Each structure stands twice: as structure tokens, then as C-alpha cells.
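Newbie here. two chains, one complex. Structure please?
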Amino acid sequence: MGWEEKQVRGYPEFVETAQRYHGRPIFALFCGDKDAEGRSWCPDCVTAEPVVRKELHHMPDDSVFIYCLVGDRAYWKDPNNEFRKNLKLTGVPTLLKYGTPQKLVEEECFKAELVRMLFTED
Amino acid sequence: QEAAKYGKKVMVLDFVTPTPLGNSWGLGGTCVNVGCIPKKLMHQAALLGQALQDSRKFGWQFAEEVKHNWMTMTESVQNYIGSLNWGYRVALREKKVTYENAYGEFVGPHTIKATNKRGVEKLYTAERFLIATGERPRYLGIPGDKEYCISSDDLFSLPYCPGKTLVVGASYVALECAGFLAGLGLDVTVMVRSILLRGFDQDMANKIGAYMEEHGISFIREFVPIKVEQVEKGTPGKLRVTAKSTMGNQVIAGEYNTVLLAIGRDACTRNIGLDKVGVKINEKTGKIPVNDVEQTNVPYIYAVGDILQDKLELTPVAIQAGRLLVQRLYAGATRKCDYVYVPTTVFTPLEYGACGYSEEAAVEKFGEENIEVYHSHFWPLEWTVPSRDNNKCYAKIICNIQDNERVIGFHVLGPNAGEVTQGFAAAIKCGLTKEQLDSTIGIHPVCAEV
């Protein structure tokens, strides 16, 4: 098969989607919300997204790629938001392999080599 | 990583040959995966169990009986180790160090063959090589050992609670594992061939053993296993161990859920083609002799870590030796690794920190009349309220009378021994004398003030 992408917004939608695909390799990219013109308030996310998308074809077959918008800047800055509390995210963008300790944070997401390593590691 | 810093092209070959039971792990070596890290975390789990008991005396009220879940602990520990494995992968990549998960062996001068887990072979050449292959647990060589017994390589990721356990061995690995398993509430017996903690100060070793015995760990002394049979399959199953006395013909048998072997570790130097490039090893022990700049008898091949002959087998020693070696090779430095006065800690239920000579070694080197031993029992303040032992914690220093009563040995038995020892190790390296120690005012109320 190949892989498929799901776009979600907010924590409850993310959790529901991740649970739905339990059993398949799940990779998730967390970014700040985008405005009406499609630009995110998070400049690093703007840089990282195309780098990550270019490497998606390296994901193993049957993977699910969840593109998740976390919320606006104020929500993200709150130290008690659900992403920080439950998923232990420390920054955006974060690219992770769900259910494992493997993740790339902020500038690490700009490096195609590291992204590829995350997608192909076993 | 250090060599890459100086612009060298570097490759790392790391491969874990699975244990007899099929267990393997990620990048990071023994310490990270099946050594110091999981050991200290599980030791901490056991200490927390004790703290929960003590807490009632300090006023904490909880009705339920406190139980321990092995799977919860193991999952958290393995998760942390996974994040370390991943961290190293990212770090190597960022520093442009090539990493191959493949088994490396020499096939000719300056040439190495790397075989990955699928059996694919590749050849690599390099100007210089550094061997740091470490050691693996030794097996007894008796019927049933590889099929039914586990080692420290398997313990920290065991997918079921080990249950009633027999630990064979009296090394620090054996005692630390026995210690935390008992601390988690398991029925633990330790089978010892002769003495405890060979190479360590025997006065301290005996105190550690006595403490463990008084706190529920059984010891079977002067016996060695001769056979292990499976009585029942399961996770855990039931095993019958037959053992013979080292002093006569007496034979005993016992049943346990798990048998953990911790009788020593053997260097991984026999199957890496060292003979093909002429690197001399000690045929009996497998260890590699090196000069004081970590060079083997072949000038372009170096070695660090547990595989070195006559050097301390400790992670920080290996790391320091490796870093300094690279700095000497590529950054013009001259500093050599100092293997003297290296502090260590054994994380048994009563922790033991030491730096320098044991009492026996000091007597042998300087003569009994030239050393003075100062010692003291102490009762940690935190132990008073919950009525824990008031005469078990102990500290002693060994001084060289002929050299201004310089402190040449430091030994402490008590909580947080590692933290206490670290500072004293720096002082000893600076040439601490008894007088300086006496004139240092203590912090109160802490154990270290003794």
C-alpha cells in the first residue's frame, strides 16, 4: 500500500485519529495554526514543513502521517496545554514517531538527513 | 564525536550479538542499555519502596498495602533507554559521524569487514582504528545454563516479573541486582563460591553482605551450581538448581522462578580478527594490553574501555581515555588518562562509595606500620525517625603516615554514597591530608560531615 495523510486540529482530534490507526506506524508533525493566507504564526514550522514533506516517501508502507495544528500562539505558550502535558512536547515544530521516544524538535526538523533517519529507523 | 570535531572522517560500527535468549538492544553500549543506567533506575525503584515504608513514620497516611508492578517499571526504564539510543543516533548524524549497525572484524591491514544483521558484508579501510568492544556476561558452562538462566543482558528488559530468584555470583553486578530485586519485594537468594566483591576492601564487602542478609536476602556460601533443569515452563517458569559444595561433597538443590548469572564478564576480543592484523591479546583473559597512550602493539590500532588489561572497568574511565586519546592525536594535546584515584560506587541496598586504596592494598603497598585508619559509624538523621538501623552506616579513611598523613583511601557505606564520594575524590586528587580534612568544617546535618 503506500502511506496516507490525516490533517487534524487540536488535541482531542489528534488523540482520536492516533487511536483509530493503532497498529500501523504513525508519524506526526505538530505545527502552529495557519492564518487565512495559509501562513503559520510559527516561523520554524514554515521552514520545516516542506523539508518533512519531501521525505514522506521514505516512511514504511502502511504508515499514517498525521499533520496536526496545535492551536494559536497564546494556546501554545500556555505551559499547561494538553500537548505539553500529555505528549510532553517542548516546542514546535516537533516531528515524532508515535508510541516511541523517537522525535525531532525545532531546528532538527530542518535537516532532511535527520527526518529521513526518523522515517527509516527500526 | 570528538574526532569529528577535529574534522576527521569517522565511522562507528556497533552491533549487539543477541543473548542466548534472543535479547538485543540499541546504540549506546552496555552502560546505557544493560548496565549503569537501568541498574541505577531499578535501584532507585527499590529505594522508593523503602521510602514509602518510612513515610508512615513521618506522618504520611495511606491505607492500601503498597505493591510493585514490574512491567510498569521496566516499560518506563526501557522507554528512557530508547530516548538515549535515539539521542545518540541524532548526535552522531549531526556531527557527521557515519554509523553502521554492523559487526566489525579485521580482515587485513587497515581493513575491516562489516556484517549487518541481514548478513550483508561491506569492506572499509581507515588510517586508524579504535577498539571499544567491551565485555559480555560469562556463563557457567553447566547443563541448562544457556537455555534457562538469564544474565544482566536480559534482566533489565525482562517481559515478566522474575519472581523467586537465585543470583549466582558475588560481583557488584550480582549484589546490586540481588539488592534491588529484594527491595522490590521478591524472594532473593545469592549463591557465592568464595568471597564477596573480590578486589574491593573486604572489611566493607563483609559489611555490605551482612546488611543484605539482615534485610531479607539469603546467602548460600561456598557452593557452585552444577546443573539447571526446567521443572515447569512459563513466564516465569520454575527451575531446579543443583549445587555442589566447594568444601566437600555435599550436594543441595532448590527451586526458583529465575536464575540470574553474574559470575563475571569476558572481553569481546576473540572473534574480531585481531590475529589477522597482529594485535596481541592476553590469551587467558582476552584483554588487550596497551601502553600509556592506549596504543596496542600495532601502532595504528588503539583500544579503550573494559577490554584493556589491568585498567578499571568503568564507563567514565573509558570515555575520558577515548576523549584524551583523540585530543592527543588530532588536537596536539599531551594529557594522558589518569587511572589513579578513580572514585567508584556500588549501588547495593546500603550504598558503598570508594576512592583510592582498600585497606588490604594499602597495607601491602606501604606496610601496616605506615598507614593509619580513621573510622566512624554514623546514623543518618533521616533514618532516626523511622527507626532504621543505627549502627550500619560507616566511613573510613586510610592515611599514609610517611607522607603527611595524606589520604590514600576513602570508603563510605551509607545512603547517597556516590554523591558523597565524588567531592572527596577531587580533594584526594589534590593531595588531601588528614589535617586538611580535620580543618574542613562539616555541613550539618548531612552524612558527609562525618
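Moderator note: The radius of gyration of chain B is 24 Å. Residues 1-137+266-331 of chain B form a domain with the FAD/NAD(P)-binding domain fold (CATH 3.50.50.60). Thread marked as resolved.
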